[in-house]
Each structure stands twice: as C-alpha cells, then as structure tokens.
Design a protein that fits this description.
The chain is built from 9 helices and 8 strands. By secondary structure, it is of the alpha/beta class. The chain has a single domain, classed as Alpha-Beta Barrel (TIM Barrel), CATH 3.20.20.150. An 8-stranded parallel beta barrel has the order 1-2-3-4-5-6-7-8, surrounded by 5 helices. Helix 3 runs parallel beside helix 4. The longest helix is centred in the first third of the chain and has 20 residues. The protein is globular and about 45 Å long.
Length: about 290
C-alpha cells in the first residue's frame, strides 16, 4: 500500500478572488497546505505577498500568479508572443515556488490551437487549430527549457494531462490537445528522459477524456502511474470537467490506489468546509494501511 501523500487544497476550493481572504479561509478551516491556481485577482505585490506567508505550505500551479494582462498559457503555441509570454510566466512561477519552499511546479500540457481567453470552457473554433505535430515539438522544447531552469532552483516540473471534452473532438478524434491519452504520455516521458520531470494526473480530466476518446480510465491510470508524482482530484459527469467534490463512495478512491504520489490536491471548486473535509477523508481512505 502506498504511503499517505501530502494533501493540498486548491485555492479554487475557497471561492475567493482575493488572496488574503482565501488564505484566511484556509486558516479558519484548519488547512495547512494550499495549491495556488488561477482565478484570483491580480495585485502588484502578489509575489511578495505569497512569499511572505509563513504559516501555510504553498504550492504554485499553472496560471498563478495572475499576469498583468490576461492570456491563455500554452507552452506549445506557434504564436511567438504567446509562447514567450507562457515561458516567462512559468519561469516566474518557478521563482515563486522556490521562494515559498515548494518542491514542485505543475503546468498543463500544451495544445495545437490559437486559443483566446474567451475560448476557455467552450468549444475551440476549428479555424483556431494549428498543426499538432509542430505543437508537440514546440511543447517539448518549452518543457526542456523550463525543467533545466527549475532544476537549478531545486524545483521539479510536473506536466498535467489535458482534458478532451466532446465538443473539441473532430470526427471522433483529438486534433488539438496534447497528452490526453496514456500512450502519448508514456512516449513523451520516455522521449524526454528528464530526471527533473514528472506527470501530474488530473483524474477529473482522465474521466472526461476516457468517455470522449473511448479508452479505459483504469488502464490509463496503470499506464501512467510509473511517471506520476502528484494527483489533482475532483469528480464530474464524464462529459464536462466541472470540478465537483467527491467522497469515500466515489470511483476516485479506487483510482488513487494505482498511484504512489508525493502529494495530491483537492481541486474541486467553491466548496464549503464539510465538502473539503469529505474529500480529505476520501483521500485518507484510499491510502489507509
């Protein structure tokens, strides 16, 4: 039986856009580990504010800290400006991870599309698509650069599997979103052969993608487990990544048992205290001796 992993709660669980209010709620709920993610209001002193938190164990994820100008983070973009903005954001996030004493920084896999902020959460227009093979090349180059930068600062890089919702299929196939299926993830990791790189498996993403792309989510878990260092945990209806809470009766409990992660993150959004506690109990159930 794997050891009990560190349990973080996503900042999205608190339903607060203000950083101070979110951290105060974490303290009120007696939580000591928080993963900071997108959705918070920008502030000029955000990096200093985060680095000044000494009573919470913080981890930085993907689109945090909030940028001065909204953009879609894509380490596989063919658009030079978007690509450099994405790479610069990740370097800043790694620096912030180092400042708070975090062990990892995680970021989403890229995609073969010119996506704008207004496309998020809806169908990506066909005219926005780019070449998936070229996107994969750019993404690997970005990850190599980011991993080398992070390694110098003592931070491990984790790549999160993409979610493929039915609306983004084209003739039943996935022409845009990288690293959504297990064989692609395994091939990516073998090709990268990077000792500072791992995978963060989002089980909610895997649930939706397994239905859209018709693969077995249990086999997915088994295939990617050797490369996986962290989990994002939330439930959904199998068609939309809705970041719902879960409990001991959820399929997620059995799915977690395929992994031996360093840490897991409760990534359900806008929860009350009882829902957070229920998710935490489900994690403990999965890893009970």
């Amino acid at each position: 039986m794997p050891l009990q992993p560190r349990i973080y709660v996503s900042s999205g669980a608190f339903g607060k856009r203000d950083f101070d209010e979110a951290m105060d709620l974490a303290r009120e709920w007696q939580l000591d580990r928080v993963e900071l993610t997108g959705g918070m209001s920008r502030r000029d002193d955000m990096d200093e504010k985060v680095a000044g938190v000494s009573d919470l164990d913080l981890m930085v994820h993907n689109y945090f800290p909030p940028p001065a100008k909204a953009f879609v983070l894509n380490l596989a973009s063919e658009d030079g400006e978007v690509l450099e903005t994405s790479r610069a954001h990740c370097r800043r996030a790694v620096d912030l991870s180092q400042a708070v004493g975090a062990t990892h920084f995680s970021v989403h896999a890229g995609f073969a599309a010119r996506v704008k902020p207004e496309h998020l959460g809806v169908k990506i227009p066909a005219e926005a698509r780019t070449n998936k093979g070229r996107a994969a090349e750019i993404f690997e180059e970005s990850v190599r650069e980011l991993s080398a930068y992070a390694k110098e600062r003592g931070i491990r890089i984790l790549i999160e599997n993409n979610v493929v919702e039915p609306g983004n299929l084209v003739d039943g196939k996935n022409p845009m979103l990288l690293l959504a299926e297990a064989p692609e993830i395994v091939e990516f990791m073998e090709r990268m052969a990077d000792d500072n790189l791992g995978i963060l498996v989002d089980l909610g993403h895997a649930n939706v993608s397994s239905n859209s792309l018709d693969f077995d989510r249990t086999e997915f878990c088994k295939m990617v487990a050797p490369y996986t260092e962290a989990l994002h945990l939330s439930d959904n209806n199998g068609r939309r990544d809705s970041n719902k809470p879960f409990d001991k009766a959820s399929w997620i409990v059995d799915a977690m048992r395929h992994f031996d992660p360093s840490y897991v993150v409760i990534e359900a959004y806008r929860l009350d205290r009882n829902e957070v506690e229920g998710c935490i109990e489900a994690v403990r159930e999965a890893y009970v001796a």
